[in-house]
Amino acid sequence: MSLVVIGTLAYDSVETAHDRRENALGGSAMYFAVAAAPYISPLLVGAVGDDWRDEDTELLAKRGVDLAGLEKVAGGKTFRWGGRYEPDWNTRHTTFTELNVLETFDPKLPANYRDAKFVFLANAHPAVQMQGLSQVEAPIFSVADTMNLWIDIARTDLEALMQKIDGLILNDEEARMLTGEDNLIRAAQKVLTMGPKFVILKKGEHGAFIMGEGLHFSLPAYPVTEVIDPTGAGDSFAGGFMGYCAKAGNHSPETLKKAMLHGTVAASYCVQGFSVEDIGQRTMADYDSRYNDLMQIVSL
Amino acid sequence: MSLVVIGTLAYDSVETAHDRRENALGGSAMYFAVAAAPYISPLLVGAVGDDWRDEDTELLAKRGVDLAGLEKVAGGKTFRWGGRYEPDWNTRHTTFTELNVLETFDPKLPANYRDAKFVFLANAHPAVQMQGLSQVEAPIFSVADTMNLWIDIARTDLEALMQKIDGLILNDEEARMLTGEDNLIRAAQKVLTMGPKFVILKKGEHGAFIMGEGLHFSLPAYPVTEVIDPTGAGDSFAGGFMGYCAKAGNHSPETLKKAMLHGTVAASYCVQGFSVEDIGQRTMADYDSRYNDLMQIVSL
């Protein structure tokens, strides 16, 4: 069943303890779409500027991403973000943010996107996420991501969105901030009282768990031995997760559990390279191979 | 099959953000034995002083711990340790250490302990651990714990011990210190080149994994919603792990994987109270019930 993703495309400048990239392809919807593409052709909604490179359009199109919803804003400039990671990977400093075309981003879904059944609202202002979601006629499974900034400055919009979505994806820090609960299990339980039927809580290198409607499933991360750049890992997790659900055509507890493994696999490829240098090359055969490895590691 | 544990007994003074205990029953071998007792009567080897309380002997005996190897040093004083946890639980400050009888601890195994098949060398100086292990005639599965202090000041003794044991249990910080590898998978791989056939790497609230001889199995922690005191969690993990193996009578990959769940269950009860206030009350029925809960959470 079709899968639409609404979110950002960016040019990122990323610095790690070992290497760096300037103006590398990034953005929440971009990472999601590249990660989901081996499962199903994702329908991408986002905005870029005049400076958007044709080669990036080609990369996404070749990957199987549907770009009918990619708006090129005349006279605008693509969103830019800069970040630097401490050697331990756990601390990320934002070195700059240029919103550019995101300042006025108003998602418009092409007519043929509106009957999508699976919807992912990648990280963006919750009012923008709501605006995107409202254009999908009858979604059967809608999931949103968010970030600390929106929990801080757009909490009312986020709370309204939480009434409309089926699932919310958060990392540990965001979950604590949203709920005021230090303990992640209690934090997840509290999120479930705020609207969503499911919550997926990501803990970076320590894995992730899903809770909701009688389901509680926890999974370690895939044991990557060399992290190159963690940027986009959460969006890639979501891409693998939603891509698998959309391909399965349902969100049964069995599907959601397996989708957690698929998300974990996608995130593990993402962190093995800057931008989509690694995951952008990965085929369904690669995904299947690592899925089987992960199954070995977590199966009794 | 019989299980012997060699290690410390202590009186701990522990302070958390919420509460405190003075001179509470503690020590690596004590926590291990209390955790393992529902599976099999552990044979305990350790030393205490004149100040050892009869009520603590009674508690351990009632729990089913064999105390023939508990040496009461005349004129000696029981090992004492003080610690304080930061509100996030991740940082522990040692407030004081009084070695007392441990300064001259020379483990002597009663004759009927020497044919034990399962051996756990709880945290102690690696030369003391070696001395204990050498008295077991033909162990089929010996596992040791250690700590940063010994990696730092007794590395040669620890390296010698690693040639003699089947498995080593470490936490993430210890693994990094022992191997110089930041990445925990690479750290575990390196430990396996240093002697042990298996390494168990504990990540506190983030779970644990075991690697070795074609086995790689990873598990999240049990989702405890209220931590009271993490002291002894690692020793309790080891107690549940080794207790289950000893009861099963083997260390096949299937047994080791299930033992990881049993260790996780034991650790989860340990942290729910100061000292052994919670885990000391837990029966095999409690263990089984939580084991089944954990199975639900990790099974696809």
UniProtKB/TrEMBL annotation, chains A, B:
Residues 4-273 form the Carbohydrate kinase PfkB domain. This is Putative sugar kinase YdjH. GO terms for molecular function: kinase activity. GO terms for cellular component: cytosol. The lineage of its organism: Bacteria, Pseudomonadati, Planctomycetota, Planctomycetia, Planctomycetia incertae sedis. It comes from the Bacteria. Pfam families: PfkB. Its EC number is 2.7.1.-.
